[in-house]
Design brief:
The complex is a heterodimer of chains A (about 80) and B (about 425).
Chain A (H helix, E strand, L loop, with lengths): L4 H16 L20 H15 L5 H4 L5 H12 L1
Helix pairs in contact in A: 1-2, 1-4
Chain B lengths: L4 E10 L2 E2 L1 H9 L6 E2 L12 E2 L13 H4 L4 H17 L11 E6 L5 H14 L8 H5 L3 H10 L5 E4 L5 H14 L5 E8 L4 H9 L29 E9 H6 L6 E10 L12 H14 L8 E3 L6 H15 L7 E3 L2 H4 L6 H15 L1 E2 L22 E2 L4 E8 L3 E8 L4
Parallel strand pairs in B: 5-6, 5-7, 10-11, 10-14
Antiparallel strand pairs in B: 1-2, 1-8, 1-9, 3-4, 7-8, 9-15, 12-13, 14-15
Helix pairs in contact in B: 3-6, 7-13, 10-11
The chains are: A mainly alpha (about 80), B alpha/beta (about 425).
Chain lengths: ~80, ~425
């Protein structure tokens, strides 16, 4: 079963809501986890780890550094799962 | 003239209630915080009871997002510190934050976090372990989080001396203000170690009571058939302040801290030295700093753990320090009601002692059912006693042979 952008997006938003205690309605595709959603570096590490667990993928550090927005996270997962 | 130090705010999270009033009312009505363990499956354990905190609503004190990054012991400590600040009536905006410090005690630290993440390590491997494990687990984090939450930029550290931790913390905080390094200190202890692993460890040590058929009376200090302590959890944090600083803002004063004694048995990792040799000196040093003769003392909040050796040797030590006057002292172990909060014990017991002084009421030792003929002092059995208390001490002794005593005095101009 292949994942769609929308289904991944939904799960990433859910992770962000849980980890950052933000309203779902405040999250957009272009939201930056740190600048817009209030994550600090520790929270960002937690989000990356939750994504790894949820989608059963490994995200190397040099890759995770490039994930700064919700859209970047979804795109990365899409490529990995393709 | 040396700087005087007074207690101007108090906050408590305890097995007999959260909040100063609930705690004090509980102590005077003989509330019993002990029951069967509910926080994990106790089936295979040789002891079954604990004094758990049951009424703690974290969100009342700490933002949900911040609380997620705190182990339970830190949540307790931060909540108690905020209650103490609120109780003091101080306006933090008017306070020099560089002269506001924190010294806290915790015997065990964030062991719930440690155990949970060790399970993750075993089940899912190292890459799944939370980045928050270390900052939540380390024992100094309650003090660190209090500082972050209230903006305390002064002296900040944590003391680890097992069950004496909070008394050392209070003593050192007292000395810190006395020597002029700080004006206000938040001090006491926080502990949340009723966990599967900690409970198993203490059980193996045979330190816990095994009175599983009557758990409510398991914590029975100074009884002939006492058979061990009952573990508790919570936090007791007091705000202490340099006297002129307190007077300048018209603060209410619960009591003055006048003495602190600290010694080590240098004897055994868990057993106290015979006849309480280290405890004797700890009490004597606190009285010496207070500048009083033993006969001036009215009340002792005893370590009184309900273990065979503690209660025996603490009684012997009291007799050695006070001689004939020992029989005239009011003594009580509030652990009969709260259980033993380990590194936080002396925090809530300092609060009990300060309230006893302020209200002229001695809280009782409940579950005093079968007196031990060898332990023949006045342990304030089962009901509180009215008594004018001018001077009191609170004892705490910890594994490692650590002994600490603080001496409090009724506040007079």
């Amino acid at each position: 079963m292949s994942l769609t952008y929308e289904s991944i997006y939904e799960k990433v938003v859910k992770i962000a809501v849980e980890e950052l205690d933000v309203e779902e309605s405040s999250i957009k595709k272009e939201s930056n986890f740190q600048d817009d959603l209030g994550a600090d570096s520790l929270a960002l590490v937690e989000i990356i780890m939750k994504i790894e667990e949820e989608f059963e993928i490994e995200i190397p550090d040099d890759q995770s550094e490039k994930i700064r927005t919700v859209d970047q996270a979804v795109q990365y997962i899409l490529e990995k799962k393709a | 003239m040396s700087r005087r130090v007074v207690i101007t705010g108090m906050g408590v999270v305890s097995p007999i209630g959260t909040g100063l009033q609930k705690f004090w009312d509980g102590l005077l009505t003989g509330a019993n915080g002990v029951d069967f363990v509910t926080s994990f499956d106790i089936t295979n354990y040789s002891s079954k009871m604990a004094a758990e905190v049951k009424d703690f609503n974290c969100e009342e004190f700490i933002d949900k997002k911040d609380a997620k990054r705190m182990d339970r012991f830190t949540q307790f400590g931060v909540a108690a510190a905020k209650m103490a600040l609120k109780d003091s009536g101080i306006n933090l905006d008017s306070v020099d934050r560089d002269m506001l410090g924190v010294i806290l005690g915790s015997g065990i630290g964030g062991i719930q976090t440690l155990e949970a993440q060790y399970d993750v390590l075993k089940a899912k491997g190292p890459n799944r372990v939370s980045p928050l494990l270390v900052p939540m687990m380390i024992g100094n984090m309650a003090a660190g989080q209090i500082a972050i939450q209230v903006g305390a930029r002064g002296v900040n550290y944590t003391i680890v001396t097992a069950c004496a931790s909070a008394n050392h913390a209070i003593g050192e905080a007292f000395e810190t203000i006395k020597r002029g390094a700080q004006n206000i200190m938040l001090t006491g202890g926080a502990e949340a170690a009723i966990t599967p692993l900690t409970y198993a460890g203490f059980s193996s040590l045979r330190a816990f009571s095994q009175r599983n058929d009557d758990v409510k009376t398991a914590s029975r200090p100074f009884n002939k058939d006492r058979d061990g302590f009952v573990i508790g959890e919570g936090a007791g944090v007091i705000m202490i302040e340099e006297l002129e600083h307190a007077k300048a803002r018209g603060a209410k004063i619960y009591a003055e801290i006048v003495g602190y004694g600290a010694t080590c048995d240098a004897f055994h990792i868990t057993a106290p030295a015979e006849n309480g040799a280290g405890a004797i000196k700890s009490m004597q040093i606190s009285l010496k700093e207070a500048g009083i003769a033993p006969e001036a003392l009215d009340y002792i909040n005893a370590h009184g753990t309900s273990t065979d050796l503690n209660d025996k040797y603490e009684t012997a030590a009291i007799k050695a320090v006070f001689g004939e006057h020992a029989k005239k002292l009011s003594i009580s172990s509030t652990k009969s009601m709260t259980g033993h909060l380990l590194g936080a014990a002396a925090g809530i017991e300092a609060i009990a002692t300060a309230m006893a002084i302020k209200e002229n009421k001695v809280p009782p030792t409940i579950n005093y059912i079968n007196p031990d003929p060898e332990l023949d002092l006045d342990y304030t059995p089962n009901t509180p006693k009215d008594r004018v208390i001018n001077y009191a001490i609170s004892n705490s002794f910890g594994f490692g042979g650590h002994n600490a005593t603080i001496c409090l005095k009724k506040y007079n101009e």
